Amino acid sequence: MEEFIQALEVEFAKKANPQLAKEQKAYLKNRFEFYGMRTDDRRGVQKPFLVKKYLPSKSEAFQIARILWSKQQREFHYFAQELAFIYYKNSDEKDIELFEHMVLNNSWWDTVDFIATKLMGNYFKTYPDKRAHYIKKWLASNHMWLRRSALLFQLKYKDELDTHLLSSSIHALLGSKEFFINKAIGWVLREYSRTNSKWVQQFVEETPELANLSKKEALRLMK
User: Fold this and answer.
1) Which of 2, 83, 130, 174 has a Cα-to-Cα distance from 56 of 20 to 30 A?
2) Which of 21, 19, 34, 122 is nearest to 73 (CA)?
3) 66-100, pLDDT tens digit by residue?
4) What whole-number distance in Å separates Cα of residue 123 and Cα of residue 94?
5) Taking the CB of residue 34, how many other CB atoms lie within 10 A of it?
């Protein structure tokens, strides 16, 4: 694992662009450090590390992901979540512990949305019996990004979306002043309107407490 991580550090450092790093840091409100790589360049650098025959075992990969998540540069976080996603078809019940850790630490929309929709979303398709426990836990927490994850994990579910769970989750968050919560409410409703616009329209009409931002986003495709 150490060799894997050290090699990745060396390759990322080779592509460092201080000026771009400064711009990327500013874009994310100076919350994270960057090497300074555009997404396509980063993925080009990391591609050899994700070749199937050279991949570490899943247990090692998840340990690597945790270690990378503790590093300062944001590129390591992007790599870690993409590494974890490779193993989604080989899901274990305990995987959710890593995904929660990722959301709870070094949190911002640029990683949380990937984790919620791809990692958590696929996890809960495999373990639907775990949904109620974790969604209740996250909604009751005081952590904005866990709450956003409770909404967004169903973003790409289409006709598999649990409307009862979505409705109860939104109602638990009504009255929130958090931009990222109200935006997520609107976003997941808007995405579901592609599948069931009638349900979304009715939900918005019957939920006058929705924030204006949520309503605007929810109905965007139905104008």
Assistant:
1) 130
2) 34
3) 999 999 999 999 999 999 999 999 999 999 999 99
4) 10
5) 22
